[in-house]
Write a structure and sequence with these properties.
Immunoglobulin-like; 8-stranded mixed sheet; 6-stranded mixed sheet; membrane; DUF58; transmembrane helix
Length: 462
């Protein structure tokens, strides 16, 4: 019986509270109403001192209650509001990205409004609450900017509105569910520079050849009768013997060289530099590198791995293939495990032909100490052209520039200098083993690897 009564009371209060929601509008007292209530206490107290306490209480609160009832009635007459959100189709990490909130009323509205948007946790914005004044208007557009803190998939949630009532005694709160997923990509500045032809113009200014093949870059097409201007090395002596006259081989440029991009996503790639991981910088460079290779007509494959293969995009060509690589890689995160490099060797052998250019983006510590990486480098350089790309640590470089004040500073500098010398020794060793090495600051990585690629491709083997 008591449970039935409790349930009946809960239903009553639920129905009563729903009456004050007014079709999804929840009301809370405004600062003005709270101030007036406190003032009423003071007036009642003062009236009681003179023996007029009940009179002052009844008159003051009667007037205030009447105004509140009228204000509640006017709230019910407010136009119906709809809030929607528009976002950029592409968000980039550590960049300002545009968000638009569009609020519409089905009739002219005059009031004050505060707006908040539930953007993804961790995003940075210069303003959390937006103040708007409606003057007999039917729509408002609020534009603000968010700066994502990491790549991947993120969720926008509700849009919250708070309106001021006619007599300013109440605030009406209303929320609109506008759940939207946004993909945050790496910075694509390097890709945009490639698409705009920046590196092509730069190569022409430097006097480097463009669109030459790696190696001889020619495939056999057919034979024809020898003419005096032909290169003697192109004479086909077996066909000459059969035909009884000189004939030459005719070659055409090889239809698309092959580039393999390997991205290490192991533990050391999670080290942070200025708020971004090494993997963030490497991925930015990977996409710029893929863009320039595909622009030149190359066939490009992409493998991301740590202790296992994480993403694999087989060989392909053209801008659509670049989109496939972007979509496959934008949400990659560093693993907490050590990288196993030899697992990619079978993929490379089965997918790429001789003279393909294999480029590995990794941490310098792995090049120095990881035995499986050293084995991979030894195997790969025998069949492919191999380039390793790593990043220097800006904090270590800054430490070398600091003044020496204490003994600890001296020991720290000595340790850093020894580490830098070991780094140079390892890079020099692999360079002598016919392995290309690139080791630069993180913010220079994208442009440096593209420039190195163009230099490699500009060499023509005779």
């Amino acid at each position: 019986m008591e449970n039935w009564r409790d349930g009946k009371q809960m239903t009553f209060w639920k129905r009563l509270s729903s009456r004050f929601l007014f079709l999804g509008k929840a009301m809370i007292p405004s600062p003005l109403l709270l101030t007036l209530l406190l003032l009423g206490i003071g007036i009642t107290t003062l009236g009681a001192f003179w023996g007029w306490g009940w009179v002052c209480f009844s008159i003051y609160n009667g007037i205030l209650f009447s105004l509140l009832i009228i204000d509640i009635y006017l709230v019910k007459q407010l136009p119906k509001l709809i809030a929607t959100r528009q976002i950029d189709s592409l968000f980039e990490i550590a960049e300002d990205n545009t968000v638009r909130l569009i609020i519409r009323a089905n009739a002219p509205l005059s009031t004050k409004m505060w707006v908040q948007d539930d953007y993804p946790h961790g995003f940075h914005t210069s303003e959390r609450t937006f103040y708007q004044v409606w003057k007999n208007e039917t729509s408002k557009v609020i534009t603000y900017y968010v700066k994502p803190h990491r790549r991947g998939r993120h969720q926008f949630e509700k849009i919250h509105l708070r309106l001021q009532s006619q007599f300013r005694l109440l605030h009406i709160q209303q929320s609109f569910t506008q759940r939207m997923e946004v993909k945050v990509y790496p910075r694509l500045e390097a890709v945009r520079r490639v698409r705009k032809g920046f590196y092509r113009r730069q190569s022409l200014q430097d006097g480097r050849a463009l669109y030459r093949s790696f190696g001889a870059g020619k495939e056999f097409s057919h034979i024809r009768e020898y003419i005096p201007d032909d290169d003697p090395r192109q004479i086909n002596w077996m066909a000459t013997a059969r035909r009884g006259k000189l004939v030459s081989n005719v070659y055409h440029p090889e239809a698309g060289q092959q580039v393999a991009i390997l991205l290490d996503c192991g533990r050391l790639m999670g080290v942070h530099n200025e708020g971004r991981t090494q993997l963030d910088y490497a991925l930015e460079a990977v996409l710029g590198y893929a863009a320039i290779a595909l622009q030149r007509g190359e066939q490009v494959s992409f493998i991301a791995f740590s202790d296992q293969i994480l993403r694999f995009v087989p060989l392909g060509k053209g801008i659509e293939h670049l989109n496939r690589i972007v979509e496959a890689s934008f949400d990659l995160e560093p693993s907490y495990k050590e990288t196993d490099y030899l697992q990619v060797w079978n993929l490379l052998q089965s997918m790429h032909r001789h003279r393909s250019l294999v480029t590995l983006f990794t941490d310098m510590g792995n090049i120095t100490f990881a035995e499986s990486l050293q084995n991979l480098m030894s195997y790969t350089k025998k069949k492919f052209a191999f380039l390793t790309v790593s990043m220097q640590n800006p904090r270590l470089i800054d430490q070398l520039k600091q003044p020496l004040v204490t003994e600890e500073d001296i020991y720290r500098k000595i340790a850093i200098e020894e580490l830098q010398q070991e780094r140079k020794r390892v890079l020099r060793y692999w360079s002598n083993q016919k392995v290309g090495t690139l080791d630069v600051m993180p913010d220079q990585l994208a442009s440096a690897v593209i420039d190195t690629y163009l230099k490699i491709r500009s060499r023509v083997e005779t």
